[in-house]
Amino acid sequence: MNKKILLTGAAGFIGAFLSARLVRDGWDVTGLDNLNSYYDPGIKEDRVKMVKAAAAGSPGSFRLVRGDLADAALVERAVAEGDFDVVVNLAAQAGVRYSIENPRAYVESNLVGFFNVLEAVRHHPVRHLVYASSSSVYGGNEKVPFSESDRVDSPVSLYAATKKSNELMAHAYSKLYSIPATGLRFFTVYGPMGRPDMAYFKFADTLRAGGTIRIYNMGDCRRDFTYVGDIVEGVVRVIGNPPEVRVGADGLPMAAHRVYNIGNSKPVQLLEFVDTLQRVLVEEGVLPEGYDFAAHRELVPMQPGDVPVTYADTTALERDLGYRPSTPLEDGLREFARWYGDYYSCRE
């Protein structure tokens, strides 16, 4: 490959770390992001600075195009002019609960935006289209661990429905236009420079401010927490291994489309997760010694759109790409706590 890539959502959590990794690996990365205000745009701007700093001493390059995926002309122009080998679509309106409050944002970004990417790639072919799906497509499935072959037709949130729709859209375009495409079902990504709307980040904010954290389903939830560095490694391996376009018995191209789980495969009970987070926040100096955690936590019922467990079966990822995420939860949370302490002490 000539190593030219368009990466949407480049100022996002996964997108920024992936961009930094790619430029170090010698890719010329064009990032597309609208840097919207769903959460603090300042963190997004700082992620962009982090990527540019990585590019400054790397064989690859990075440039950012500010724009919205819902702008069809912008997306078409970006893909047409870039002569890209790969397109990675990470841009999306994230968050399960927010999809209940503002559903239109999910339709515009996750459905219309992804359609615009598919149309652009249809007219300007690339060697591989990689896109973010989500573990949320599994809904309330009771069979665990979740496997890519499981049925995923019972979403419990609009966010989940849009991600399953992305998989169906990509499959159809792959079949019709011979587009090699891979969807990635990410499982509860966490780490430094993350999204402030994620539980671990909100817990840190709340505890630091002396507030009370709310632990849903009375603490009886399990999440397959996956460190951002492990996610990036998985995406990089996928990028370099596009599915092969083959012809079926009817003489027509078959869909060169596949889906992988990327998760740690070690679901953690939410109360254990909170205990670990609190401990590393103290040990890394974010919270004072002797902090009274019991006085700052409340067990509450399950919220609409949530599920009791997420658990990735990564057999396919291991079989095809020889990779399995493995960062222990405590190590990942410690990296977050160190970054959090440094980042916010600089702003006070």
The low-confidence parts are: none
Q: What proportion strand?
A: 5-15%
How many angstroms separate the termini? 46 Å
CATH fold naming of the domain at 4-188 and 225-264 and 311-326: Rossmann fold
Going across the biggest sheet, name each strand in turn: 3-2-1-4-5-6-11
CATH superfamily of the domain at 4-188 and 225-264 and 311-326: NAD(P)-binding Rossmann-like Domain
Radius of gyration: 20 Å
On the 0 to 100 scale, the average pLDDT is 94
In short:
This protein is of the alpha/beta class and 348 residues long. The protein has helices spanning 13-24, 41-56, 72-82, 98-101, 103-123, 158-177, 199-208, 228-239, 270-283, 315-321, 329-345, and strands at 4-8, 28-33, 61-66, 86-89, 128-132, 181-186, 189-190, 213-215, 222-223, 226-227, 257-262, 268-269, 297-299. The protein is globular and about 65 Å long.
Would you kindly provide a written description of the structure presented here, covering whatever features stand out?
Helix 3 packs parallel to helix 5. The termini are far apart. The chain has a domain of 241 residues: NAD(P)-binding Rossmann-like Domain (Rossmann fold, 3-Layer(aba) Sandwich). It is built from 11 helices and 13 strands. It is globular and about 65 Å long. It has 348 residues and is an alpha/beta fold. The strands form 4 sheets. It has a 7-stranded parallel beta sheet with strand order 3-2-1-4-5-6-11, with helices on both faces. Strands 7-10 form a two-stranded parallel sheet. It has a two-stranded parallel sheet with strand order 8-13. The longest helix has 21 residues. Helix content is 41%, strand content 15%.
